[in-house]
Amino acid sequence: MITKTQLRIKRLFDFSLVIVFLPFLIIPIFLLIVIATIDTRKYGVFTQYRIGQHGKPFKIYKIRTLRDGNHQLGNMDKYASKTGVFLRKSKLNELPQLFNVLIGDMSFVGPRPDLEGFADKLEGEDRIILLVKPGITGPATLKYKNEENILARHKDPEHYNRTIIWVDKVKINKNYVKNYSFYLDLRFIFKSILNK
């Protein structure tokens, strides 16, 4: 099980890494925001409340990729703007989450931050997932990197997500917290970079 000391080291690593990379990425992030603003005709930063460490909600930041409309769970590419499809597939739309890491809402590695109604509803031993900050990447994120395509193949993606994918993610993330090591975090980061 992850310890308080490991959590402190994890936070120190996150802060140090984001301080190193953010100066090089701040201009590309700004340019992507401008492009997204022009492309979607709305402010290029998308914000949404997600469930964080200890079940507390926080505001996540992403590059806006979707046009206006009623967006359903599943294949979002049909709702995406011209550049939005590329940004979503390349994961560049998630670059603003570096600011979430900087201020301490997120980590580089951890469970993906979910909407209200998932992580905040965990019970019993499953709640150990909430001991860690949600991550930009992680074991469940890597396994379900094509989650939207998987959901798009099902008639009821919401039901499939709640009964199959979410249940599996809970198991994966519990295992991550129970068997945490700094080495594993490094491994997930490198694996994420190679999988882009």
How is this structure best described in words?
Belongs to the bacterial sugar transferase family. Keywords: Membrane, Transferase, Transmembrane, Transmembrane helix. This protein has helices at 4-40, 84-90, 97-103, 139-143, 147-152, 157-178, 182-195, and strands spanning 45-51, 57-63, 107-109, 135-137. It is mainly α. It has one domain. Helix 1 runs antiparallel to helix 3 (97-103). It is globular. The protein starts with a helix and ends with a helix. The relative contact order is 0.15.
Keywords:
single chain; two-stranded parallel sheet; 196 residues; mainly alpha; 7 helices; two-stranded antiparallel ribbon; 50% helix
Brief account:
The protein has about 200 residues and is mainly alpha-helical.
Task: Give me the secondary-structure topology.
Layout: H1 4-40, E1 45-51, E2 57-63, H2 84-90, H3 97-103, E3 107-109, E4 135-137, H4 139-143, H5 147-152, H6 157-178, H7 182-195
Parallel strand pairs: 3-4
Antiparallel strand pairs: 1-2
